[in-house]
Structures are given as C-alpha cells and as structure tokens.
C-alpha cells in the first residue's frame, strides 16, 4: 500500500518558524514532523510515499534527499506554482496510485498513535469508498455520521453552516483526525477542478457511496499547528 502526506500548506499558525521554513520540517524532540509521519507509516508497513510541496518546497526536497527518505521511497508532487488544497493536491498526485486499490492520506502536522493497521483492515472488510479517522473532541467543524458510522454531513458550529447529504437521524458529530484510507475508485468520482478540499469531495459523493468513520478516541492525537503545540508534542511523542 502507498500513502500521501500533505505538506504543501503555508503553516501560518506556526509562525515565526514558517517565515523561513516549511511546517513539515518543524522539529519535535529532534525529529521533523515529516520524518515522524514517514516513520509512523513504516510502522504500519507503508514505505512508498508521495509528498506534495509548495511553501519552501526546496527545503523539503533537500531534507528527503539528505536523509534518503528516512528509509522509505519518496516521490514529490510539486505544487510550487499554486497550492491546490487537499482535494486538488490529491487529484494532482492521482497518477501515483494507478496500480493500487487503496491508499492512505494524512496531514503532515498531525501526530498520532492511531492503529492505522486496524483502520486499514476495517476499510477493506467493509468495502467502503473511504474511511475517516475521528475522535470525540471539541473543535469548530465536524463530520456527521449516522448510527452505522456512515458519513451523512458536515457542520461548522461557529458559523452554524451545515450540509446534510444523507437524510438520517440521529446524527453523531465527530472531529476529523486528518487521516484517511481511500479506495482508488474515488478518482473517477472527483469532478472538481483546481483548488478544492477533500471535504467537498466527500460531501459530493457520500449520498451514493459509503464513507465510514474509524473512531480512535482515547488515543494520542495532536495537531501541531501552533508554536505552543510543539512543547505539548514533545511531551506526548518521544
């Protein structure tokens, strides 16, 4: 199985580090976020990874080369001309997964001890289009799932914006963890162009395709998006 790590973001929340570096190379106990997630994927048997780059792309490319991919085979998806967000970034890298049936997608600034192997097994057993890692935690935006853990909608609790694509009750709000397992059949269903979000993709196909959750509440999960979260990460991830 192959994976993609999203590393093209500007990392504005992680200033001042990102004034001169990409967030992917921010250090937690001497290891960059990128290295940690490449090694995390290796723990679950994945050593073929494509990384999208935009902000200080040359630094990421140099770090991968200098460290021989930290033991993995690394490809680069170059978005230096325009950052394409999550959906557009994945679509640009679709060629990498042509021979695959499933793949993993994750954000570079997420650190977790999520049992990815178990998540992949659930995804394959249930034969769904996508499996989204979630937890029960407070955030501003939620995916909404029915009692069978199938995606039915999305809600922003700050703006009260809500999109329901499957009519069902009750709906349970879960916070997305930034890790996906996806069937490559999704590429034939992506009709958006240019810059767009994976959230838009999921909401556009969830009414006719099964997208499920994988709840890992109680485990370690940290969005390393702000300078103060680096210190917290260093306590949680040695």
Question: How would you sum up this structure, described in words?
Answer:
The protein has six helices and 14 strands. The chain has 238 residues and is of the alpha/beta class. The protein has one domain (2-236): Alpha-Beta Complex (Spore Coat Polysaccharide Biosynthesis Protein SpsA, Chain A). Helix 3 (85-92) crosses helix 5 (198-205). 44% of the residues are buried.
Keywords:
about 240 residues, Spore Coat Polysaccharide Biosynthesis Protein SpsA, Chain A, about 30% strand, 14 strands, 10-stranded mixed beta sheet, globular, two-stranded antiparallel sheet, alpha/beta
- The helix fraction, in percent, is 10-25%
Rounded mean pLDDT is 97
Q: How many domains comprise the coordinates?
A: 1
Name the structural class.
Answer: alpha/beta
Major sheet characteristics: 10 strands, mixed
Quote the beta fraction.
Answer: 25-35%
Number of helices: 6
Give the overall form.
Answer: globular
**CATH architecture assignment:** Alpha-Beta Complex
CATH class: Alpha Beta
The termini sit apart by 27 Å
Q: SSE string, helix = H, strand = E? A: EEEHEHEHEEHEEEEEHEEH
Oligomer type:
single chain
The named CATH superfamily: Spore Coat Polysaccharide Biosynthesis Protein SpsA, Chain A
Number of strands: 14
> Can you tell me the residue ranges where pLDDT is under 50 for at least 5 consecutive residues?
none
CATH fold field value: Spore Coat Polysaccharide Biosynthesis Protein SpsA, Chain A
Spatial extent as radius of gyration: 17 Å
